[in-house]
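Quick one: examine the sequence and fold tokens given here and explain what the tokens say about the fold. Here goes:
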Amino acid sequence: MLQFISMAQAFGEIEKHASRQSLPTVLVPLEEAVGRVLAEPAVATLSIPPFDNSARDGVVLSASGLSAATRGSPVSLAGELRAGDSLEVANGIEGDAVRIMTGAPVPLWAESIVMIEDLTLNADGTATINRLPESGAWIRPKGSDIAEMSVILKPGRQIIPEHVQALASSGVVEAVINVKPRVGICSTGEELVDVKLGPPGSGQIYDSNRPFMTAMMRSFGCDVVVNEHVGDTLDEMVGFLNRVMETSLDLVVSSGAVSMGSYDFVKPALEAVGADIVFHKVTQKPGKPLLFAILPNGTLYFGLPGNPVSTVVNCRFYVHYALSVMQHEPLETPIRFRLENDIEKPQGLAVFLKARCIRGEGGALVRALEGQESFQTMPLLEMNGWIVLSEHVGSMQAGELVNFYPSNPRGLSDIF
């Protein structure tokens, strides 16, 4: 078992073990795949556009029609092409020019298209070209957007509604996705009271970690299968571990009971059931007592410290990282922003700071908020991300660049 390892070492150990996990896959209709992670490449079954077509309403010119327009002569219109006409209809028309609508197929003889704003339609069935087009103007070539048989979405991408537009237009009607990771969670501590069961008594507090972990796991796309509160005894913790091992889970997360107190039974319980404890304690603040283990049946186990912000930090970064690796998702990279205020920090300790990204006159800035202690949850309502500083850097000055991660690892929607 590794102890007091660096943040980078912790991520490395998690990646090594999580990469060995494989999630089942399932084929679903495309519209049901939104929010899920793609497990196999999505391949276009046809080109977009599927044929050369018009980008504008106007007139399509042949070589002879373009020559006439260049001399200033009106061009004769041999017919009209509309969206939905076949290629055979388009190629069956002969002449100098044809009236054409947006999306209509372009004849093989087409040189360019003149949009309606640049021509005059005459009563005698001709058109006067007021502005000559460039060669190939307003013709959308076949496959210029998406090529047939090309990989248009790689495995590991979470599918969003915008993806459906491109996938469906190129003939993708089903997607192979990862089955939702099956997760078990538990909170520990005799002092905790379920928020749904009424106010806490003397010496008790509400259990906020379990609702948080439930919400966070669901936001990560997981199916929360086991959801329990466990008391402060070794037997209860061993019983919980045996129950989750009897269930087919991919990952288990607990909060509390991972420090060095008399009632911190997570580590002894893991040892009692024969788990492989990979590491315990990371040189970071908050959340130093983080524990990562592999249960005897191969399930990943995270023991998070019970302080609320410690649970938030370790769940947001380490548990999310494990799930990303398991699903072959692109690993998250920080955004580099300039600091609005100074940060005092010792070297040798990684820190996760509640932060808010704001608009400044010179661009976006990020500010470390007041209230950085691990019990202080009020700043969670104001923050929209985290400043993460490794153990290799010390105090930072306003104006320096720092690594910023949004609160929601899926995107930046709540930053501004």
In short: The mean pLDDT is 93. Residues 308-326 form the longest helix (19 residues).
